[in-house]
Amino acid sequence: MATARTPYPQAARELLRDTVFGAARDELQRRNWSEITMSDIAGAAGISRQTLYKEFGNREELGQAFVIHEGERFLDDVEAAVREHLDDPRAAVGAALEAFLRTAAEDQMIGILLRDDGTGGMLPFVTTQGVPVVQWATARLAAVIEEGWPEAAAADAQLLAESLVRLAISYITAPSHAPEDTATAAVHLLGPFIDRALGVS
Q1: Distance from C-alpha of 173 to C-alpha of 142, rounded to nearest angstrom
Q2: 163 and 102 part of one domain
Q3: Each residue of 80-114: pLDDT tens digit?
């Protein structure tokens, strides 16, 4: 059976965005986000500033899109961890949170963002200006929870997902314990709600 081809406009847009994100990543290896202009990224990506602005609107929207792009692989790990423990909701939540924290701790780009001392300009995209990132991550995680436990109320899945996302962001920006210890503590705190929301008697 032939695999459906991605329509050309969609494929072209995905290639453009991947190229821009790669250019942003390269620039961030050398200097802080606050020092990088749209012209810098456009030049590094080999496109015009007009094309860059047309796709992302402005520098802030580009920064948010970049953070979400970088976060995709974390959510992939989280989703895999949840699906491996569908028979044990507490274990699923613990494994998911640990996977996120461990991957974030080991990722070079996240390390660069988190070493921001307040002048680098990108950390706010996951803290004070982090609403788009939180909304995106919450929607993805809530969808996984609803798929894994269809008996769960949508409102409970949403609440659990958003709580986990906000906890995860808090922990990666100010870590105090090893990922496995942090995950265990979070599950201990949230356990009764997890049991009720995900149908464990």
Answers
A1: 22
A2: yes
A3: 999 999 999 999 999 999 998 888 888 777 777 76
Q: Which of 76, 72, 85 is nearest to 187 (CA)?
A: 85
Domain range for 118: 63-197
Q: The domain spanning residue 165 has which CATH number?
A: 1.10.357
If asked whether residues 140 and 183 sit together in one domain, one would say yes
* CA nearest to 97, candidates 115, 113, 74: 74
Axis crossing angle, helix 59-83 with helix 38-45, rounded to the nearest 10: 60
* Model pLDDT, residue 104: 82
**CATH number (domain holding residue 26):** 1.10.10.60
Alpha helices (runs of H) in the chain, residue ranges in sequence order: 8-28, 38-45, 49-56, 59-83, 89-106, 108-114, 131-148, 154-173, 179-197
Q: Read off the tokens for 172.
A: 């990666």
Same domain, 31 and 119: no
Alpha-carbon distance of 160 to 199, in angstroms, equals 13
- Cα–Cα distances (Å) from 142 to 60, 122, 150, 184, in that order, read 26, 26, 11, 20
Q: Which residues contact 195 (CB under 8 A, 6 or more apart)?
A: 89, 90, 201
d(CA 190, CA 90): 9
pLDDT confidence of residue 112:
73
Same domain assignment for residues 92 and 116: yes
Interval 11-63: pLDDT, tens: 888 999 999 999 999 998 888 888 899 999 999 999 999 999 999 999 989 98
